[in-house]
Amino acid sequence: MNIVIYGTGGVGGYFGARLEQAGNIVTFIARGKHLEAIQKYGLKLISPKGDYLVFPANAKENIAEVTDIDLILVCVKTWQLEAAAKEINQVLKEKTMVISLLNGVNNAEVLGAVIDKKHLLGGLCKVVSKIEDFGVINHISFEPEIVFGELDNVKTERALLLEKVFLNAGITTKLAENIQTEIWSKFLFIATISAIGALTRATVGEIMASPELKKMMREIADEIVAVAKAKGIYLSEILVEKQFQMIASQPYNTTSSLQRDMMEGKPSELEAQTGTIVKMGIELGISTPVNDFIYYCLLPQENKARNQKTKLN
C-alpha cells in the first residue's frame, strides 16, 4: 500500500516505521533539520518492541510531490490540522483514504470542512513516543495501537483491508464498532492527565501520588463525561475506572505531549483538549469549573507560544 505519514513526530514516526518495515511504500512528511536528518541518515526507531532503521527513508517536505496515494495518516498537532487539510486536499485521488490519529474529538469535522467526507475515516492511536533527536523516534511506553472505523461505523471493504494492513505491520489494531465512542474514550484518558500535568509540571506518577491532584483529575473526568453525554456519547463508569487504571499503570515519569510542549514554550493542544471541554460546556449549558480553572490558568502561556510561533513564520 502507498502510504503517506503527514507529520513525522512521535506518533507518525512510530507507525510509519512499522508500516514500512512490513513492506509498504511509505513517504514521511517532515520539516527542517528533522527532515534533513531523515533524508541523510534514515528514520531511526527506538522501541521496547524492537528497534528499526528506515533507510533509505522516503522523506519529503511537500505532500504535493507524492502521487497515487492509497492512505494518508495525519499525525500533526491539532492546531496544525486545518492547514494540513488544505495541503492534503490537493493530492487526493478517487480512492485515497485519510485518517487522523490526533488527540481531540473534532478532527473529522475539521478535515471534513475542507476534504470531501468520502475520503475520511475516524481514527485514534495509543502510544507514548516522541522525537528523541533529529531523525530519531523513541517509543517510551504503552502498547502501540490504532483504532479506526468508518464515520458511519459500517465495516466496509476498505476498512477491512486497512485492518489487515495494520495487523500485518504488527500493530495492535481495532476496527471499531462505534468510532465516536472510541474517540471520546481516548479523549477522556488524554484530557484527564495532559493539562493538569502542564499546570503542575508534575509527572503522571507524581500526580497519582497526590490525593488532592488525583481527586482533581477525577473531577476533570466527570466534567468530560457530562459534556460527552450532552453530545449523545455515553461513557460508562466502568470505562472511567478503566481509564484511571491505565493512567495508574503508566511509568512514574510519564508526561503527555501537551505537557512537554508547554514546558518547552511551544504551541500545544490545549485548545483541542481542555479548551474543547470548556467551550462545549458553555454551548451545552454544562458546568465545567475544574477544566475552566486549568484552561484559563494555562491560556496566557499558550497564547504567548502561538504569538511567538507566528512571528517566527
Quickly list its features:
single chain, 313 residues, alpha/beta, Rossmann fold, N-(1-d-carboxylethyl)-l-norvaline Dehydrogenase, domain 2, 2 domains, ten-stranded mixed β-sheet
Q: Largest sheet at a glance?
A: 10 strands, mixed
Number of strands: 10
Distance between the termini: 35 Å
The residue-averaged pLDDT reads 95
Q: How many DSSP helices?
A: 12
Label the structural class. Answer: alpha/beta
CATH homologous superfamily (4th level) name of the largest domain: NAD(P)-binding Rossmann-like Domain
Listing every helix as H and every strand as E from the N terminus to the C terminus, the arrangement reads: EHEHEEEEHEHEEHEHHHHHHH
Shape: globular
Low-confidence stretches: none
For the record, the count of structural domains works out to 2
User: What is the annotated CATH architecture of the largest domain?
Assistant: 3-Layer(aba) Sandwich
Q: Class of the largest domain, according to the CATH hierarchy?
A: Alpha Beta
What is the CATH topology classification name of the largest domain?
Rossmann fold
Indicate the radius of gyration in whole angstroms. 19 Å
Tell me what portion of residues adopts beta-strand conformation.
15-25%
Summarize the structure.
This protein is an alpha/beta fold and 313 residues long. It is 49% helix and 19% strand. The chain folds into 2 domains: 2-177, NAD(P)-binding Rossmann-like Domain (Rossmann fold); 181-312, N-(1-d-carboxylethyl)-l-norvaline Dehydrogenase, domain 2 (Orthogonal Bundle), CATH 1.10.1040.10.
